[in-house]
Amino acid sequence: MLSPALFAFATDRLLLRLRASSLGLVFGGEWVGALMLMDDLVLLARSEDELKSMLDVVFTWAWEARY
Questions:
Q1: What is the DSSP string of 17-34?
Q2: Residue 22 near residue 3, CB atoms below 8 Å
Q3: Per-residue confidence in pLDDT tens, the chain, 67 aa
Q4: Left (φ > 0), alpha (ψ -120 to 50) or beta: where does 65 sit?
Protein backbone atom coordinates (compact mmCIF):
# COMPACT_ATOMS: atom_id res chain seq x y z
CA MET A 1 0.00 0.00 0.00
CA LEU A 2 2.95 2.32 -0.45
CA SER A 3 1.96 3.29 -3.99
CA PRO A 4 -1.04 5.54 -3.04
CA ALA A 5 1.07 7.36 -0.45
CA LEU A 6 3.86 7.98 -2.96
CA PHE A 7 1.36 9.20 -5.55
CA ALA A 8 -0.18 11.60 -3.01
CA PHE A 9 3.28 12.86 -2.06
CA ALA A 10 4.21 13.48 -5.70
CA THR A 11 0.97 15.21 -6.69
CA ASP A 12 0.39 17.23 -3.53
CA ARG A 13 2.66 19.94 -4.91
CA LEU A 14 0.36 20.33 -7.92
CA LEU A 15 -2.64 21.06 -5.72
CA LEU A 16 -0.57 23.46 -3.60
CA ARG A 17 0.56 25.29 -6.72
CA LEU A 18 -3.00 25.53 -8.03
CA ARG A 19 -4.21 26.90 -4.68
CA ALA A 20 -1.37 29.43 -4.57
CA SER A 21 -2.26 30.67 -8.06
CA SER A 22 -5.50 32.20 -6.70
CA LEU A 23 -7.38 30.55 -9.57
CA GLY A 24 -10.44 28.37 -9.17
CA LEU A 25 -13.57 28.43 -7.08
CA VAL A 26 -13.81 29.56 -3.48
CA PHE A 27 -16.82 28.35 -1.50
CA GLY A 28 -17.49 29.43 2.07
CA GLY A 29 -14.01 30.89 2.31
CA GLU A 30 -12.37 27.59 1.29
CA TRP A 31 -10.56 27.03 -1.99
CA VAL A 32 -12.26 24.23 -3.92
CA GLY A 33 -10.63 24.77 -7.31
CA ALA A 34 -9.46 21.21 -7.84
CA LEU A 35 -10.24 17.65 -6.89
CA MET A 36 -7.78 14.84 -7.41
CA LEU A 37 -8.45 11.11 -7.13
CA MET A 38 -5.59 8.88 -8.17
CA ASP A 39 -4.68 9.99 -11.70
CA ASP A 40 -7.86 12.01 -12.35
CA LEU A 41 -7.91 15.77 -11.92
CA VAL A 42 -11.01 17.97 -11.87
CA LEU A 43 -10.52 21.72 -12.22
CA LEU A 44 -13.33 24.04 -11.14
CA ALA A 45 -13.08 27.48 -12.72
CA ARG A 46 -15.34 30.51 -12.94
CA SER A 47 -14.72 31.04 -16.66
CA GLU A 48 -13.10 29.51 -19.71
CA ASP A 49 -10.18 31.93 -19.43
CA GLU A 50 -9.61 30.97 -15.81
CA LEU A 51 -9.71 27.28 -16.76
CA LYS A 52 -7.05 27.91 -19.41
CA SER A 53 -4.89 29.65 -16.80
CA MET A 54 -5.33 26.71 -14.43
CA LEU A 55 -4.32 24.33 -17.22
CA ASP A 56 -1.18 26.42 -17.74
CA VAL A 57 -0.33 25.83 -14.07
CA VAL A 58 -0.90 22.08 -14.50
CA PHE A 59 1.18 21.83 -17.69
CA THR A 60 4.03 23.88 -16.18
CA TRP A 61 4.04 21.69 -13.07
CA ALA A 62 4.04 18.51 -15.20
CA TRP A 63 6.90 19.84 -17.34
CA GLU A 64 8.99 20.80 -14.32
CA ALA A 65 8.28 17.44 -12.62
CA ARG A 66 9.10 15.61 -15.87
CA TYR A 67 5.71 13.92 -16.12
A1: HHHHTT-S-EETTEE-SE
A2: no
A3: 667 777 778 788 999 999 999 999 999 999 999 988 877 899 999 999 999 999 999 999 999 988 8
A4: alpha
Q: Which residues have C-beta within 8 Å of that of residue 4, sequence separation ≥ 6? A: 38
**61 neighbors 13 (Cβ within 8 angstroms):** yes
| 8 A C-beta contact, residue 23 and residue 45 | yes
Q: DSSP label at 47?
A: S
Angle at 38 between CA 25 and CA 34, to 5 degrees: 5
Do residues 23 and 13 touch, judged by C-beta distance below 8 A?
no
pTM summary value: 0.84
DSSP helix/strand/coil, 46 = coil
